Amino acid sequence: MLDVGRGDAASLRPMFRARALFLAPLALAGCTVGPDYRPAAPAELGVPDGWSVPATQAEVADLTRWWRRFDDPLLGELVEQAAAANTDVAQAVARLRQARESLVQSRASLLPTLSGSTGYQRNENVVGGGRSFTLPDGTVVDTGGGGRNAYTVGLSARYQLGLFGEVRRTVEATRAQYEASGFDYAATLLTVESETARNYVLARLYQAELANARASLALQDDNLEIAGFRVQAGLVSSLDNEQARGQRAQTAATIPALAQQYNAAVSRLGVLTGQAPGAVKGRMEAVRPIPGGSAAIGVGLPADLLRRRPDVRAAERNLAAATAQIGVDKAALYPALAISGNLNTNATSIGSIGEAITGSLFAGLTQAIFNGGQLRSRVRSSEAAADAALAAYRGTVLNALEDVEVAVVALNTAREREREFAVALDAANNAAILSRSQYRSGLTDFTTLSQQEAALFNARNSEASARSDAATALVTLFAALGGGWDADVTPEAPRAGTTLSTTGNP
């Protein structure tokens, strides 16, 4: 036990005071300035309790792979291929990886930095000492009595202590930005998936319209032949023949335009799946019906979108990052403490390294005194950025609500139109059959036949268009509800040699 006398105790008081002064800033290290982020409640964001349009508020089913609800294997293959190979998705993944590395770098600021050095030096005496050597010109040079080795080893450390939480706030902001990048990736993924499905539906619509045009063209070829026979027989004037010829030409003229539209949709599918424009033309060549999809969809409550929509969650994380940045800028108004130290050793031989070690420790406290108001301006700027992020967050939420309501109405309208056009198609088909039979029998003129077949042509296209609109509206609704990714998982940047996925297992 150490016995300290009165004189000794008095001599130790300055050392205790110095330690107290040194440890005082450390006690302040737990102080973090700036506002603490708090997620806004749905009511603060303008989210209503229910929808303003007729919608089934039943719980939303699992829409992670909503394309399987269309029962079209090729559609599913193309959507999943686009999710894996699309170039926009690849860019989003790269940005997510960059954000992860920014977080790693930011976290490193919480730890001290260490660096080491080592060196070797050889000193020779070139005068005296008895050693000599002969230069090429014959001159003898005395090297002295020997030389001296010098070995040095050093270790230095530096630690930036965030007295007022600037380092922790920086990590907080960077983490929020990384999470926002993950949700941005998911939003890009959803856009690519829905765009692929829409173009697939369009391609099937153009196939249906091409088939309709070719079928009508075949009938009009038959009508033109009949009209020609009737003109030759003197039963009708050449007016019927000219009307038949003109109607056929008009129908034939629609085929190249439809073929061009079909080619554009299929080419777009190739690019969306990360391939050349013509890569999927062979797979799409076989004519298939326009996919129908689910009969009823539960859309849940408006507040559910805050969790399901990745763009909404990205906007929320951007707000969190902007809020943390206020703390970073406010901390710059207060003192900053940096601690550094080093250890060094010098030896004349490797074996004696460590026998004599010297070291130093330095703690430096800095405080901004005058900067023309620059630091306070930065605080006001970051507060304005946080206000903008809040407005962007509210705007994203309101847009998400709008997307759902518009898609619900579009789907209901398209399905109602589809039902009515089915009735119209049946009536137009029956009327065309009767008109064709009556014309062949001479009971009606060609104008009536032409009108009825034009009506049938339009009814077929209208019915196909309504089916396409219903399928497209359903795809839009799935995307508006946040389908196409696993909402229970925050996307993480992929490790080397792995593929990022937010849609779960197949």
Automatic annotation (TrEMBL):
Gene Ontology cellular component annotations, sorted alphabetically: plasma membrane
InterPro entries: MdtP/NodT-like, OMP_efflux
Compartment(s) of residence: Cell membrane
Membrane topology of this protein: Lipid-anchor
Alphabetized UniProt keyword annotations: Lipoprotein, Membrane, Palmitate, Transmembrane, Transmembrane beta strand
Family: Belongs to the outer membrane factor (OMF) (TC 1.B.17) family.
Name of the protein: Efflux transporter, outer membrane factor (OMF) lipoprotein, NodT family
